[in-house]
Amino acid sequence: MANNRGDGSIYQAKDKNGKPIPNCWRISVSFGSAGGDRQRVQCTVRGTKAEAKKKRDEIRRQHEEGLAIDAGKVTVSEFIETWLEARQTTGKVSEFTIKNYHARLKTIEPYIGKKKLNKVTAAEIERAYAQLKAKKSLSDTTLNKLHILLKSVFEKACDYDLILRNPCNKVESPSVDKPDRKSLTQEEGATLLHKLDLEEARIIQEMDEKEERQVKKGNQFGRSSIRGLANLGFTIGTRIALATGLHRGEVFGLTWKNVNLRQNTITVAQTLTKEGEIKDPKTGAGRRTISIDESTAAHLRMWRKRQREELAKLAIKLGDATPVCCSERGEWVNLANFERWWRSFRDDAGFEGLRFHELRHSQATLLLANGTDLKTVQDRMGHANGAITLNWYAHAIPENDQKAAQLVGNLFGTPSKRTQRGQSKIINLVENSPHAETFREKPDAVGLALA
């Protein structure tokens, strides 16, 4: 380990004419062994000589603690940019995610951005969170996401020897608001499926009527788009979500290569993002193959036949790479367009406020409520472990709670013959006890004895 060479020197700075500059000091501190590499740190301090000595001692302390010598020069804002660049260089996060990180971290920069990294305290971070919540009306969930990012930034600063410890470790993490998720009942699910059938029939009728007009004009082939094809695909995607519990991006990232209608399975191998990009599942558990019911499989067979006919009008041949739910041009759908369709459809169907993700929530809840084992539900949902499944979906269901109460009653409510004989024995002993009179005067004592 390198040894310090003396305490370091402090002398009054001079101008170009060699005249001393009032209240200006030059500091020079050398580190390293006599026969090895040596490092010299020099800087200028304006102020009293006592302040210069304080700066010299700080340089020595940083070296002794293993910190980078220039640690005290880097501000929070500057290091945030360094952190973002490092994250982008890894290639593990998309450009959209980097922009999202940057936007979140920007919210706290007005409060601690200009401070030196090594001067930020846990108390200052907590005050910043409180001000953001009050002035920006940020939710606890949003603050929690910011906290996770900021903690990662300071952790990297520790790795770079710019700070000794992460101030975020002493900050209580803002709580996450657990969303009030709606879960469809079996009856509501059946109603939604019926409404989908009606919507699908309506769209097909409109498409057929338009097609008749196109045929009369001689325009049935060579077109660039098919009106209604995307909306028809949206009904198919909603049907798949009801049957599988897939995420929205997983549903609309499916190609026909992922659908096996001989074995009635769907394989999740990729996901469609809001930006229209195809990405791998976030975790290994997200890449999965799940079964579908025969009714859904039969519907997909009919849809594939219809889709093949519609795409032929665009001179597109349906194949393994064709999206199961395609746009009017036979390409990946625009998820923003889907959201507009979904809000209109669900409101007209009498399901105002129902979020598409709640179809996934409904499947998991109903499966668990009807006795499906946790491991199966976990695998269908693509959760890395069963704890995630339980945390999100195994909430109390009134009917099941009543069944549980009845089960406990059945287990403990009817005493066995052996227990009855034992209780009779205790009662006889009590009656023949020298203290029998006490028990007669205080009947509760009998119950205490039985206990």
TrEMBL record:
PROSITE patterns referenced in this protein's UniProt entry, alphabetically: CB, TYR_RECOMBINASE
Keywords of this entry: DNA integration, DNA recombination, DNA-binding
Gene3D superfamilies in alphabetical order: 1.10.150.130, Intergrase catalytic core
Domain of life, source organism: Bacteria
Domain Core-binding (CB): 74-158
UniProt-listed InterPro entries: CB, DNA_brk_join_enz, Integrase-like_cat_sf, Integrase_catalytic, Integrase_recombinase_N, Integrase_SAM-like_N, Tyrosine_recombinase_XerCD
A GO biological-process term: DNA recombination
SUPFAM superfamilies attached to this UniProt entry: DNA breaking-rejoining enzymes
Residue ranges annotated for the Tyr recombinase domain, each copy included: 202-406
Entry's Gene Ontology molecular function annotations: DNA binding
Similarity annotation: Belongs to the 'phage' integrase family.
Protein name stated in the entry: Site-specific recombinase XerD
Lineage: Bacteria, Bacillati, Actinomycetota, Coriobacteriia, Eggerthellales
